[in-house]
Amino acid sequence: MIKKVLIVFCVLFSFNYTHLVDASTKNREEYEKLGKVFWDVDLEEKFIALTFDDGPHPAYTPQILDVLLKHQAKATFFVMGAHAKKYPDIIKRQAVEGHEIGNHTFNHIYHQKNSDQLKDELDHTKKAIHEITGKKTNLFRPVGGIYNDLIIHTAIENGYDVIMWSWHQDTKDWKSPSVNNIVNHVTSNVQPGDIVLLHDAGGNRSQTVKALDEILTVLKEEGYQFVTVSELIKISHTKYK
């Protein structure tokens, strides 16, 4: 009996230890060395990537697409699989208009319990995007920007680049700040190679829509060009590697 208890204890301890090891977090520099995790890129030329999380939304995403079309700017949308299946026509429009679509999991679960759960979330969203657009995605943005060894390595092992955002370009538009606050945050902190975080769903995004129009107007006058995340990485690799 004692032997059986010890065996069960050892198994449970081994599982918990493995889970803790998998969920440990390294500093940003260690993950960047993998060449598959990006917060931004080193550039001298004025290229940046605008990214939108949590969509698509039936009202705000089309409005954002209208603004991007008006300014002939490209963006990357990190979509939730559940929303993509609900609003496939918006996903199709994103693809047709030359925007990039990334994976933001299926159900937006903040704390992934294990690698299998995250893989399942990624697979379901990848399938939804492919069924709607005929295209595959290899970009993943962790929910809430939460990252650790489990999340990073699971994503990479399943063929994804992990895309974070420039630490100085978190607009926090999910808190519904004023239009001026969003605009000033992006335009006063902008640097070549930035990846800007915005949201097209998850709440009232009317401020984001209005701010986007002003951001594009101001930064275009300063000579900035707006490309997808993959294009931004490619430009960096082409020029400096």
UniProtKB/TrEMBL annotation:
Signal peptide (residue range): 1-20
Q: Which UniProt keywords apply?
A: Hydrolase, Metal-binding, Signal
Every copy of the NodB homology domain together lies at: 46-227
UniProt source species = Pseudogracilibacillus auburnensis
Any Pfam family hit: Polysacc_deac_1
In terms of superkingdom, the source organism counts as Bacteria
Q: What is this protein called?
A: Polysaccharide deacetylase family sporulation protein PdaB
User: Cellular component per GO?
Assistant: membrane
The GO biological-process annotations, alphabetized, read as: carbohydrate metabolic process
A single GO molecular-function term is: metal ion binding
PANTHER family in the record: CHITIN DEACETYLASE 1-RELATED, GLYCOSYL TRANSFERASE-RELATED
